[in-house]
Amino acid sequence: MPGSWSKPTRLRLSIVSAKKVILGAASELALRTLVERAPLASSLAEAFKKEGFRLALVGGPVRDAILGRLGNDLDFTTDAPPHQTKKILKTWADHTWDTGILFGTVAGKRGDTTVEVTTYRTEKYEEGSRKPDVEFGETIEGDLSRRDFTVNSMALELTGETPEFIDPFNGLSDLGKKVLRTPASAEQSFSDDPLRMMRAARFASQLGFTIAPEVIEAMQSMSGRISIISAERVRDEFIKLLMSNDPRIGITILVDSGLADLMLPEIPKLRLEIDEHHHHKDVYEHSITVLEQAISQEERLGGPNLVIRLAALLHDIGKPKTRNLIAGGGVSFHHHEVVGARLSKARMKALRFDNETIEAVETLIALHLRFHGYGDGEWTDSAVRRYVRDAGDLLDHLHVLTRADCTTRNTKKADHLARTYDSLETRISKLAEEEELSQIRPDLDGAAVMSLLGIKPSADVGKALDFLMELRMEHGPLGEERATEELLQWWKARRHP
Fold first, then answer.
1. Spatial distance between the Cα atoms of 180 and 203, rounded to a whole number of angstroms
2. For residues 313 and 339, what is the distance between their CA atoms, to the nearest angstrom?
């Protein structure tokens, strides 16, 4: 170890707390591991100490070290003013950026380690304001008091003679109990930053923690405050939740607390609907199960995948608007995939998702019922080609979504659906080998069309290519000779009907 912590005798931690804290062996080892596995932290601390400032590792990295999941992104807090932090980081880091300097944060990267250093501060949102008021503080204890949860209100002071563990709000105890509490009152904390309500749901999903009853009560009574938070911040927090190991937990908290009514209202509305094929569960429960089953297949997509998780969660949101009672009992949701695709596009636009993600999710939802017209394999080769063409680059995603959408408890029915989809994938693979399905295009290109028909670039060229594409989909590869013959006949019929 570089610096003053290189000797084992210097690794003993000092404990500072509002109450006496006794670290268990596992926790003490974790904190020592943090110091040992983050040697760059010591050199950064030395740089701040040399200039007469304090530096402490803070928040998530301290929590994660105790949990045994330390990463390469480290957060620090300091008494140095932002301009001094920037100056120090420029001498230490390979790269720096100061986009958050107005809020006291300067970032840097050295090797594989990214650091954010923030001046002690307090912040809060005034009633109706979308921008927080930030005030810089004087003590680390004051800085910790403004953080979201006690498990994130622990710090490791690095500029003293030995590393000093600071835990004024008993975060270590709450970490041991796996419970989320706020340093201040929950009402005050959520008033200062309403996004913390969503963060509670996210941490519950990521860490498997429970939320203290008083925190849940505050979330329920204050859920309306989330409306002052920008769509971009809400989106980013929701993505983190959705990409966690167990998003069911967090989504359920969002729905039960009333937060989802404001940021994703289509989801709680699903609780009112009973699926026509799955009478044992409402559409909400079905959708969460589809999400979980899609996650279990993500290895087909290369790992955790935002598009498939969004599509799985949202695939049935068109059902409330398309619900119709059937004479004699029962309910139908005709064309809910079309309505759902439109609703998903509108909601994701409102949350400021990028166009590529929006279009991908919209496409998957619009196509998620297509397979159910396959029957027991009655599709023509033409229908299979259209299935592949319409899915495009999302074909593997569609495979995952369609398989995940089977949530029946009837084992015989589930096995039959799985075998039927296996047969569809087999047919796709066979046709792909024969016809290069991933690159389906007309047998003639635009230049050939213009030459054969004696026309210049125009709408007629596009119509001719569309005609050839339909022939390609219907009959497979035609070859240049037959395609030319069919094109000329089509053109003659259009000019002389």
1. 8
2. 15
Paired tokens of 368: 């998620």
Tokens of 428: 């796709």
CB 196 within 8 A of CB 190: yes
Q: State pLDDT tens for residues 390-447.
A: 898 999 999 999 999 988 888 888 888 888 899 898 988 887 776 555 567 777 888 8
218: helix, strand or coil: helix
Nearest Cα to 251, choosing from 243, 239, 242?
242
For 281, residues 6+ apart whose C-beta sits below 8 A from its C-beta are: 275, 289, 407
Torsion of CA 134, 137, 140, 144, to 10 degrees: -30
- Which residues are registered as beta bridge partners of 114? 73, 109
- Cα(328)–Cα(326) distance, integer angstroms: 6
- Characterize the bridge pairing of strands 179-180 and 210-211: parallel
Distance CA 217, CA 214 (A): 5
Torsion sign, CA atoms 252, 254, 255, 257: positive
Q: Which candidate, 434, 423, 383, 382, places its Cα nearest to that of 399?
A: 423
- pLDDT tens for each residue of 179-237: 999 999 999 999 989 999 999 999 999 999 999 999 999 999 999 999 999 999 999 99
Domains of the chain in sequence order: 3-175 (3.30.460.10), 178-264 (1.10.110.30), 266-439 (1.10.3210), 446-495 (no CATH)
Is the Cβ–Cβ distance between 118 and 78 less than 8 Å?
A: yes
- For residue 64, the model assigns a pLDDT of 86
Instruction: Give the Cα separation of 166 and 224 in Å (integer).
Output: 34
From residue 108, alpha-carbon distances to 87, 89, 127, 237, 494 in Å are 11, 7, 34, 23, 66
Per DSSP, helices labelled H in 99-246 are 140-145, 171-177, 186-192, 195-207, 213-222, 231-242
For 3, what's the count of Cα atoms within 13 Å in the CB-facing half-sphere? 22
Q: Are strands 55-58 and 73-78 parallel, antiparallel or unpaired?
A: antiparallel
Give me the pLDDT at residue 11, please.
36
Q: Tokens for 70?
A: 């330390």
Residue with tokens 């803070």: 58
Below-70 pLDDT ranges, the chain: 1-38, 122-134, 272-281, 326-330, 332, 434-439, 495-497
Inter-residue contact 34 to 158 (CB < 8 Å): no
- CB count, 10 Å around CB of 429? 11
Q: Closest Cα to residue 369, out of 268, 275, 266?
A: 275
Instruction: Specify whether the CB–CB gap between 83 and 102 falls below 8 A.
Output: no
